[in-house]
Amino acid sequence: MKPLRYVAVVAAAVAIATSAGCTTLGVKPWERDILARPEMALDANPIDNAFDEHMYFSKESTSGGRGFGGGGCGCN
Questions:
Q1: I need a labelling partner for 70 at 20 to 30 A (CA). Which of 6, 35, 46, 64 fits?
Q2: How far apart are CA 39 and CA 10, in angstroms?
Q3: pLDDT at 64 over 70
């Protein structure tokens, strides 16, 4: 009887742990002010981002342009 009880306790613990992981889906309204800060943006420094994109699209010949003329030749 003890092994069966052990398995039941472990199964219950796993069920509780996995169901608690999906309780918060999305950002709460009071958390949006923190995420709206400029330093939280994916491209916090637009100059560095533009330079990185230029280097990537100049060297990666198969990617093509990103919203502007030119092909994948690097002559954007």
A1: 46
A2: 43
A3: no
